[in-house]
Structures are given as C-alpha cells and as structure tokens.
Design a protein that fits this description.
By secondary structure, the chain is mostly helical. The strands form 2 sheets. A 5-stranded mixed β-sheet has the order 4-3-5-7-6. Strands 1-2 form a two-stranded antiparallel sheet. Helix 2 packs across helix 5 and helix 7 packs parallel to helix 10. The N and C termini lie far apart (71 Å). The mean pLDDT is 91.
Length: 645
C-alpha cells in the first residue's frame, strides 16, 4: 500500500514538472518570432501533410514537421503551389517559406503558433521517457531528478517549442533506447517488435538518429563478448555455442532494423511522396546530388562510396516501389555533405568555418545552468573516482568491467551512446549550436542522477553491539546524507529560479560564467543566442516609440521585417552605410550579424571590407574585450541591437 501511494505521489510530482515546463514553452511559443529553420520546416511540413509531396527540406526526416502541420490544416491557409519555388526550383524551401507565411495573405503568427503545439507535445513525451528510463534504473523518486534537469533546462525549453528536429531527435533516441533495453532484458517477440518500431520512429525524427545503428551493434557485440569472457574456462569447448549466440544477435539486430525501416520509415515516406511526381523527384535528386561531393559518377567511370550511394539514390528514385527509400537516402547524403562542409560562425572572439573540437564542451559549460553543472560534474568526478580506485574485493579491472556491464547495462548503453556521439560531433566541422547535443543531454542527466543517488544514500551503519560510539557514527552518517539531500534540493530550486528569471528569453540563456542571458553573445551566437526570435519584440519597440518613422533593419532569422513592421521598415546592410545620411535615424541589427561583421577572422579566411560595419564602429566604438560590438542604445529582446543615429 505504501509503495503504491509513494509511486502515485512521484507521478504527481512528475506531472508538476511537466506543467511548469509546458508553461514556459507555451509562453515562449506565443512571444518568439519565427526562427531561421522554421522558415524552411513549416512550408515543408505543410507540403507533406496537405499535398503528400516531399519536394521541400529533404535533408530532415518528416516526423516533427508533419505533426506540427496537422493542426495548421484546420486554419486552411493558402499554400502557394503555383509559385516558382514549388513548381520549378529545386528544394526552394526558404523562398516557399517566405511565400507561404508572408506573401499569400495568411496570418503568419497564427500558423507559427499553431505549428508549435506538436513540438511542445513531443518535448513533453521526451520528458516522460527521461522519467521512465531513469525510473527503471533508480526508482520512482530519484528518477524525478533527471526529469527536473531536463524539463527545466533553458536549452530544452528553448528548442522544445520550435518547429525543428533537435528535441525530436532527443525523443527518438530516448524512445528507441528505452525499448531496446526492454528487449535486452526480456528478448520476447513482443519486445522485439516494440524495439523495432521504436527504432523506426527514431529514424524519422532527425538524421543524427541513424547513429543508433552502430551503437546498437556495439552494445550487442559487448554483450556477446562479455559472455565469452565470463565463461573463459569453457570457451573452446563452447565455441559453437558462442558462434550461435553471435548469429542470434546478428539476426535480432537485423530484425530490429528491418522492422523499423519496413514498418515505419517506408510507409511514412511512401505517404509523403505519394503525390510527388516521379519525374520531379528524379530531377530534384539528380540536381541535389550533383553538388554532393564527389557527385554522380560520370559514365564509364567506377564509383566510390558516397558516389556509389548517390548513383544508387538516383536509380531508386526512378522506381515507384523504391522511391520512398530514395528520398530517405537523399536526406542522409545531404546531411553528410553539410557536416563535411562546415558553417561560418562566431565563436570565442573569432569568425571561422568551424568551432573546432572544443566547441561543444565549451558550449556545454557556458549554456547549462550552474546548478545543473554542479550536479553533472559532481557525478562525473565521483563516477570516475569509483571506477579508478582500487577494488575493495580484490577484483581486477577486467572483472569489474564485466560485472559492471552485466549489472548496469542500461547505464553502460547510455555512456556508450554519449561517448560515441560526442566523439563524432567534436570531430565534425558542423558546429552551429548546442542543440545538436540534445540527443545526449537527457542521458547525461540520468547518469549524473544515478551517481548522486549512490553518493547520497551511502549510509554507514556500524556492525556489532550497539554502543554510544556506534550510535554517534550512525547519527553522523545520517546527518551527512541529510545534508546531501538538502544540497540537492537547493540545487533544483536554484535551477527553477534560474530558468524562471531567463524567461521568455530561453534561446539566449547563458549561465553566469558565459555572461548571462544578456551577455552570452560575446562568446558565441547563431542558434545558441540569436536565431531571429526577437522580431516581434522589435515590432513592440517600434510601436512604443511613435517618433520612429523609418528604421533600417539588418535582420537574421525566419521572420519578415517588412511583414511585421510594415512601411516603417527599410531593408539595410553594412555596405549601405549610415542610414542617417538618408534621413533614417534608427537602425536595428541582429547581434549574430554584428559579430560576423565586426569580429576578427581566422587566418586564411576573408571578409569584404564593406560588410564589416566599420562606419558604425567608428561612431560607436566597441568596448575592449572579446566579442564586444558597437554599444546599442536599446535592445529588442536579447538579440536585436537598436541604434539611434
């Protein structure tokens, strides 16, 4: 009875965390302008569900985009399928987004706000699976700790309410890993199907989730190898048994992957390519892959890896049966090409094509809240200490490792995914936001919470006769445990307050080490700080200042300044010079644009002098220090700097 009541209370606390997280996301969803990637994802998703046509945004899978557009169908907006962006251009997602949201007579914010409903729901589902995965490891109450860290994370709240794929990827990884572990624990036919279907769902969230394939193969190999090492005395005698186990694992993995691709990926892509003309798909695929290195293989030559896949993709696009898989493969090839190409970013005082291997570790330290860092880093240090110290039972490191994998396979699976994913990400030149780490962040929270549970609940009870000395030792042990509990409670309350004070500027959140929400732009921008979310706040600023008759706007994002500001907006950029020379005494510039324009470029990189806003720096000299830009007179939200000239 007590256990049932305790479980019910834990679920009520979880529900409270979910309500707070939902409230923060809803607040931001109603006040943030369309961000950069929504300009592409929204028209693409509407094309999927309204026209059953996948010609837009093939570099991302459909799940989040399609679900986001389901409620938008009830608004019955005008979808400009007669435009060149739809009819003749190749993957003209940005032009189609501008036409759909701002040039077709639709209410842009009604579409955007409605579209953000399902991403919020997906984020809450991810929160649920954080709790379920942690609950199986550490119980009802301790599982609330990683749930709180995830649900109250400014980064999760920021990206959880946008029509993008990042939190969707986190959900996909959690969902797939949860059911894969269920299958490992109980390899029944039912759990095999659950694992396969969950894997398939993960594959249509983001093209980082195919990374689950090598991870699952590695985990299966680890289990197989552990069985061999544990049974070393009979290894030769039982060689055939181990070979059979290896074949069974290969068959199981093939079934999991096959179920996912055949029963989830294929039907979804089949549906959304149903009205995508074959000739158009072939032409689009050929055009896109011609620019993917090394491109399509010329006639008479032998293809090489990526080139072979590109050739195969075009061949499959011709087939009415295989073209859904062709569209899926096209997306993977586009992502591989983009990951190799890098992106121009501002990071730690310089403009470069890549942030380098330290990009993600530094971002994690600057963007996570300090209480979360204390919990995570304490968990990391304690976990490393317990792993490296001498074993009190005299076991070798190999024996300890084998015992750990056998007893704590769920934690080992999460560690494996984190290490492999971070290792790949740190080597990739595509460093454009902490959002790319979101598939690993909930797993980090779960592992840290598990270490804290072991540490807090280490209570030493003396054996033997009860004496005053033994009672004193027990009392001190309980006191230390109570103090650790208190510290943990204070850290979670601190996290809540930190997030509440950042609202609704969650995207721009940096901790105090990173300059805070209002100063983080000095370290890094792009989707870490400025993604165009403050355009509505610029409109509010202009409305509150009737003396502004005209304002030059150099904006980075998915909004349309002319749509939201009307006749008062004048499109501006650095090379046009000082707008005051043309009688325009107000200028608004996105801070991402300012950083890219004013900060030093690394050796070997170039920038046109007219794009450096030198004239603005001359009349508003930046303060000394990393990342300082011409000081604004006002700011719209956190990311749009306003100058009265």
């Amino acid at each position: 009875m007590f256990r049932k009541v305790s479980s019910s209370l834990a679920w009520w606390v979880f529900g409270s965390i979910a309500v707070v997280s939902f409230s923060f996301m809803l607040w931001a969803a109603r006040t943030d302008a369309p961000i950069m990637d929504e300009l592409a994802h929204i028209p693409a998703g509407y094309g999927y569900v309204h026209n059953l046509d996948y010609r837009l945004n093939p570099e991302h899978p459909p799940l989040v985009k399609a679900l986001a557009m389901l409620p938008v169908l009830f608004l019955n907006p005008q979808f400009p399928t007669g435009s060149a962006a739809w009819q003749s251009q190749v993957n003209a997602q940005w032009d189609m987004g501008a036409a759909f949201l701002y040039q077709s007579g639709n209410d842009a914010m009604a579409i955007v706000s409605t579209a953000r409903i399902f991403p919020i729901i997906i984020t809450l589902l991810a929160l649920l699976f954080v709790y379920l995965l942690a609950r199986g490891i550490m119980g009802n109450w301790w599982a609330l700790l990683p749930a709180a860290l995830f649900g109250l994370s400014p980064t999760v709240i920021a990206h959880g309410h946008y029509v993008t794929t990042d939190v969707g990827a986190a959900f996909g990884v959690l969902f797939s890993l949860y059911f894969f572990l269920k299958y490992v624990d109980d390899p029944s036919v039912k759990h095999l199907w659950y694992a396969g279907l969950a894997f398939g769902v993960a594959q249509i969230t983001k093209f980082s989730t195919p990374f689950l394939v090598p991870v699952f193969i590695f985990l299966a190999f680890t289990l197989w190898l552990r069985n061999i090492l544990v049974d070393r005395p009979g290894m030769v005698r039982r060689g055939r048994t181990f070979a059979m186990r290896a074949l069974r694992w290969i068959a199981r993995l093939a079934l999991i992957f096959g179920i996912g691709y055949i029963f989830i990926v294929y039907p979804v892509y089949f549906l959304f390519t149903l009205h995508y003309p074959v000739a158009k798909q072939v032409a689009d695929t050929t055009s896109i892959l011609s620019s993917v290195a090394p491109g399509l293989t010329p006639a008479g030559e032998t293809c090489r890896f990526i080139g072979c896949l590109a050739d195969l993709d075009v061949w499959m696009a011709h087939s009415p049966v295989l073209r859904p898989f062709a569209e899926y493969l096209l997306g993977i090839l586009m992502v591989l090409q983009r990951a190799d190409g890098g992106n121009t970013i501002y990071f730690m005082g310089h403009v470069a094509l890549s942030g380098g291997p330290l990009y993600f570790p530094i971002l994690f330290l600057l963007k996570e809240t300090i209480p979360t860092l204390i919990i995570v880093l304490t968990g990391l240090v304690l976990g490393a200490w317990w792993t490296l110290r001498r074993d009190p039972h005299g076991r070798t490191r190999m024996e300890r490792a084998l015992d750990y994998v056998g007893v704590n396979f769920a934690e080992f699976s999460m560690i494996s995914f984190i290490v492999l994913y971070w290792g790949y990400s740190m080597r990739s030149p595509l460093n454009i936001g902490i959002r790319h780490l979101l598939p690993t962040i909930p797993l980090i929270y779960i592992l840290a919470a598990g270490v804290w549970k072991k540490w807090v609940m280490r209570i030493s009870l003396p054996s033997g006769d009860v004496t005053l000395a033994s009672l004193g030792l027990a009392a001190r042990s309980f006191t230390r445990a109570a103090f650790k509990y208190l510290v943990l409670i204070v850290l979670v309350l601190w996290l809540f307050l930190e997030t509440a004070f950042a609202a609704p500027y969650f995207l721009s959140y940096f901790n105090e080490f990173g300059g805070g929400t209002w100063g983080g732009y000095r370290y890094v921008t792009d989707s870490n700080y400025d993604w165009g979310q403050d355009l509505l706040r610029l409109r509010s600023f202009v409305d509150a200042h009737p003396e502004i008759q005209k304002i030059g706007v150099d904006y980075f994002g998915g909004g349309s300044p002319s749509y939201f500001l009307g006749a008062k907006e004048v499109n501006w950029w650095s090379a046009r010079g000082n707008p005051a020379d043309q009688g325009i005494h107000w200028l608004a510039v996105s801070v991402n644009t300012l950083e890219l324009a004013t900060q030093p470029v690394l050796s070997g990189e170039t920038r046109t002098a007219s794009d450096t806003y030198a004239w603005l720096a001359a009349i508003r000299p930046p303060a000394p220090g990393m990342g300082n830009v011409p000081a604004p007179d006002y700011r719209a939200g956190t990311s749009i700097f306003i100058y009265h000239l």
